[in-house]
Design goal:
The protein has 384 residues and is an alpha/beta fold. The chain has nine helices and 18 strands. The N and C termini lie far apart (47 Å).
């Protein structure tokens, strides 16, 4: 368990983090918010140490589901869209979606406003698997953005029973708000990543509603959302010891696969962003016959990530932006002021196009081949 009482080291870490960021963020950030009001220089984000009690829960077996895929689009004139597929990508980190704006709660109204801002400013929802596969399926001229939900909180995903007796997504839950916004905006995409705690106590008990646990995981997989392993019950991986780490991860993976047989969990989210000394334990492991293999590990906070083909990209340390007002103001405004740093798609997931001046930042992938470019100011590389 974490101790969050007054005077603990947790508060010291927050204080030090605020001092560091306050001295490193340009003064220009303490101006107009991306939403149109005056915002102060934001403090850094530090994950709160909310650790539910151990409460393993069995998940009944269900049938496997399929995930739809998008169709590539044609590449338009480069000069018209200014592609930069070595640019930065925001992975947004949400927790509770509720009625009051708190440190780990985003109100429903604010969440809708976030989606509206992203849509109006040319962002397009994708999952993490697009980045891991280096197949970013985004229309030409748009910027990919990833939404993640941590802790499988009840506010994120609820079912309601329709008039015909069928289960429908509660429009007041986080997922319901996302789907209601995406439906009339097909040019915004429809994706999110849910980092789940199959053995946690309420309110993080795999979205609540125990009778619908397996249906919820099936729904996420069937509708193209991604399921991420967040351990069994939000364990601090430095405190439980290395022998217990495979247990925490494997049992969470087992619960997911019992609900959705054959589902491949590619992403791991260490609670509170705490990595053990032996990071390899987060990538591969086995416990009581259940194995796991993760291709990516999510961090807490830090900022946007670099593109899959950027030489600095490390999928085992994928930074995120916490979805609190100060952090969102900071980064939304930053990309308004520095549009050249955004990842901008050329529209073809089998190629990457980027300004020739960024060639030193390019990390070739296996099988990639440079192609003649119709514009000498851009490099064109065929990935497959």
């Amino acid at each position: 368990m974490f101790d969050r009482s007054p005077g603990t080291g947790w508060h010291l870490a927050v204080f030090l983090g605020i001092v560091i960021l306050a001295t490193s963020v340009p003064a220009s950030f303490a101006t107009t918010s991306a939403y149109g009001y005056i915002a102060p220089i934001p403090p850094p984000s530090v994950e709160s140490n909310v650790t539910p009690a151990v409460r393993p829960a069995a998940v009944p077996t269900a049938t496997p589901t399929t995930v739809p895929t998008a169709t590539p689009t044609a590449v338009p004139r480069l000069a018209d869209i200014h592609p930069n597929e070595l640019g930065k990508i925001m992975i947004l980190e949400y927790h509770v979606i509720g009625d009051q704006e708190l440190r780990w709660t985003r109100t429903r109204e604010s969440f809708r406003r976030d989606l509206e801002y992203l849509y109006r400013n040319g962002y397009y929802l994708i999952g993490l698997n697009d980045l891991l596969d280096n197949r970013v399926r985004v229309p030409a001229g748009k910027t990919p953005v990833v939404i993640t939900f941590d802790d499988s909180n009840r506010s994120q995903f609820q079912f309601v029973v329709g008039a015909d007796g069928s289960l429908k997504t509660d429009p007041t839950s986080g997922l319901g708000i996302l789907e209601d916004f995406s439906a009339p905006h097909p040019d915004f995409g429809r994706s999110a990543v849910f980092c789940v705690l199959p053995g946690a106590d309420p309110p993080n008990d795999l979205f609540g509603q125990p009778a619908y646990r397996q249906q919820k995981l099936q729904y996420l997989a069937r509708e193209g959302y991604e399921i991420c392993n967040h351990t069994l019950w939000h364990a601090n991986l430095r405190q439980i010891g290395e022998k217990d780490i495979p247990r925490q991860i494997a049992l969470a993976n087992k619960a997911i696969q019992q609900a959705v047989p054959g589902y491949q969990v590619n992403t791991f989210n260490p609670p509170s962003g705490v990595y053990p000394k032996n990071v390899s334990l987060l990538v591969d492991g086995t416990f009581e016959g259940t194995s796991y293999h993760h291709r990516a590990i999510l961090e807490v906070g830090a900022g946007p990530m670099t593109a899959p083909n950027h030489r600095k990209t490390d999928f085992l340390h994928m930074p995120r932006i916490q979805a609190i007002q100060t952090e969102l103001d900071l980064w939304f405004r930053y990309f308004k002021q520095h549009p050249e740093e955004r990842y901008v798609s050329d529209g073809n997931p089998d190629k990457i196009v980027f300004p020739a001046k960024l060639l030193d930042d390019y990390q070739p992938s296996q099988g990639a081949q440079e192609e003649p470019s119709p514009d000498s100011t851009y490099k064109v590389v065929r990935l497959r």
